[in-house]
Amino acid sequence: MHIMEGFLPATHAIAWTMVSAPFVVHGVRSIKKKVDEHPEAKMLLGVAGAFSFVISALKLPSVTGSSSHLTGTGLGAVLFGPTAMTVLGTIVLLFQALLLAHGGLTTLGANVFAMAIVGPFVAYGIYRLGQQRQWPLALSVFMAAALGDLATYITTSVQLALAFPDPTSGIIGSLAKFATVFAVTQVPLAIIEGLITVVIVNVLTKYSARELAALKVLLRLEVKA
Amino acid sequence: MGKRNGLLLMLALLLVLIPLGIDFDDNGHEPFAGADAQAEGVIQDLAPDYQPWFTSFWEPPGGEMESLLFAVQAALGAGFIGFYLGRSYERKHTEAAKEQKASPSLGASSR
Fold first, then answer.
1. Does residue A219 belong to any structural domain of this protein?
2. Nearest chain B CA: its distance from A47 CA (Å)
3. Is residue A224 situated within a structural domain?
């Protein structure tokens, strides 16, 4: 889902940066508040960031014959809320843009919007919905992580389609092309992301129950566990 | 829980392995090319005249150095998660042992 450096027209690059910036600012505030209230959650915040760091470094094969990577943003969104994950995701994307030439500074805003805003918000929304409907915890987490991952890749496809409409079939036509590359490849990978996120949440609920209970979002987790 | 996690991880592994077993008609293209690079190709098809207007300040010099950096990224993340989980695991066990000491009747019955 990394849009390469320079591959969005300047107007699009600037627009996505302006859309993403307030989320990052809100996220920094929300992390500060969480850490002030629950200093013991600092390490767990590190785990959420590290999870996205590892998982987005691994390119996995897909049944379409191409490969892509996971985003790892579902875990942080469930644990700390969506905008906290925006900040962690932005750090991951910045590292990849600067050191790996994956993505870029001009496309950072757009990439942050796809991976660190839409992904976490979809994941968080689905998680909350699952909790409201009293789905089993594993199902809520699985659906949140998998659909958040998929939403990120659909967003990237839309961003590219808006920037590069097909000369004959327009935005819809190019959306179909980009979605074939990104979204279809991502379906099995999104399932993998869901499975792995459930495993890590299982381990955390067993060994870090106290930290989880300290965070408000996770009171429900504790009750269920 | 251990069994259930094992099953979930096996399932994830299976999803990774299945594509490797499929015989794709690559037409001489690199098998399992990255989706990001493929999207670049689609852009070039849609807008052949588009010129990237900005290039990275720095690029890893060559594929091997890129692999190195990706491996470092994964290792750092995995190392931190491993450290955290090991610490939580140990702490939980130490606490459980302390609790047992605090209530000797329970401790005695388990021996």
1. no
2. 6
3. no
